[in-house]
Amino acid sequence: MFVFQTFYNLTDGEIQLVPLKYIPADYEKGFVPAYEFGIAPANNAGLMMGKIQLRVGDNENTFYGGHVGYMVRDVFRGNNYAAKACLLVRKVAAAHDMEKLIISCNPNNMPSKRTCEKTGARLRDIVEVPPHHDLYQRGERETCIYELDVPSTGKEGTA
User: Any keyword Acyltransferase (predicted)?
Assistant: First the structure.
């Protein structure tokens, strides 16, 4: 049974991840449990520069849509905050015994492809999105599947 954990000190000294939501699984819809964090400066948890979500578990949705989803507000783009947040969220993944994270993006989304490369993620494949998947319904026909290793640093969270 999945149990959400509380994480403190998710920071690299420049940014921090601030817990925003615990999103329960909806297995009927194929949604695994997820954490949503705000991306904020290390010294100002109230300034939300963007968000990152970690989906915990493996299924068709996390294969095509990824374990990680992120967004950085326009005014803060160009500072590698998404890549830094991806690296920080690996601590949460490690606490749930995940060994790899999938980050997916449209093959034409150059900023997201660069973000994946900056994290050290490897391009595993470019795959066709099946017609029944939500991404396909939104007009996506292909997706890049990047794989990011999760260092086994042990349990970082506290319940």
Answer: yes
Residue 7 to residues 20, 35, 46, Cα–Cα distance (Å):
11, 10, 17
What is the C-alpha separation between 111 and 105, in angstroms, rounded? 10
Q: Which amino acid is at 117?
A: E
16-47 exposure pattern, b = at least 16 Cβ within 10 A, e = fewer: bbbeeeebebeeeeebbbbbbbbbbbeeeeee
Structure tokens of 151?
């260092």
Mean pLDDT by 10 residues, the chain (159 residues): 93 97 94 98 96 97 96 97 98 97 97 97 97 94 98 56
Closest CA to 15 of 67, 50, 53, 55: 50
Strand partners, 128: 142
Bridge partners of 17, per DSSP, are 39
Give the C-alpha separation, 57 to 20, whole Å: 19
